[in-house]
Write a structure and sequence with these properties.
It is a single chain. The protein is α/β, with parallel strands linked by helices. The chain contains six helices and seven strands; from the N terminus they run ααβαβαββββαβα. It starts with 7 loop residues before the first helix and ends in a 6-residue tail after the last helix. A hairpin with a 7-residue loop joins strand 4 and strand 5. Helix 3 runs parallel beside helix 6. The strands form two sheets. The chain has a four-stranded parallel sheet with strand order 2-1-6-7. The chain has a single domain, classed as Rossmann fold.
């Protein structure tokens, strides 16, 4: 891994995530993403990943942030984006979960859709996160893999312009536990699953020398 001075609480979370077992069936799903990333690197091309979910509010945001963090930790040059098919907001419950995992997060007002700066280290540029459609100008890539993180978006978006490959990596929506006693636990559980899988993905990619 790269020598990046992560925040101590984030290191603890990542160490727990790395110990989380990943089933053989799930690894088979992730292998498609690993192969895409490796192919792009082998060809000397940019790796652009656009994590897509209907509202770009929870799972796709988790995925973008954990994928970018994992890529940077492993020294893999990758541009990780996220988007949806409609604009809502980066859900505050998901933001709170990321804070509990150790990220430091600030934001600026943008109406009902704040723009967040997510830091994993004081030495690195923040990851910018807000709800947007998949082809928002902030997702500055003409050629990318569309990583579909929810079944609704995967099944209802038959065509995504600019996509080189469509890769389903679906996650259960923690929204089902909103306003219940299990809310924080289930958001943290989903965040840790995504962290575990994105860390695994980038650990399997061979850097070009």
């Amino acid at each position: 891994m790269q020598k990046i001075s992560l925040y101590p609480s984030l290191i603890e979370f990542i160490q727990k995530a790395q110990k989380l077992p990943i089933s053989a069936e799930r690894k088979a799903v992730l292998e498609v993403l690993i192969s895409y990333i490796q192919s792009k690197l082998d060809q000397g091309q940019n790796v652009n990943l656009n994590f897509i979910c209907t509202h770009n509010s929870r799972r796709s945001q988790f995925s973008q942030i954990w994928a970018q963090t994992a890529a940077d930790l492993h020294g893999i040059l990758a541009n990780c984006y996220s988007g949806g098919v409609e604009v809502t907001a980066f859900n505050e419950r998901a933001v709170s979960s990321l804070k509990r995992s150790g990220f430091r997060i600030s934001y600026k007002e943008n109406g009902s859709n704040p723009i967040y700066s997510v830091f994993y280290s004081d030495e690195s540029d923040p990851i910018t996160a807000f709800s947007k459609v998949f082809n928002d100008p902030a997702n500055d890539a003409l050629h990318f893999a569309a990583v579909m993180t929810c079944d609704h978006a995967d099944e209802n978006c038959p065509f995504i312009p600019g996509t080189e490959q469509r890769i389903p990596v679906r996650y259960e929506d923690p929204k089902a536990f909103d306003n219940t006693e299990l809310e924080a636990e289930k958001y943290d559980e989903r965040s840790m699953q995504i962290a575990s899988e994105m860390l695994f993905v980038f650990s399997q990619v061979q850097k070009q020398t």
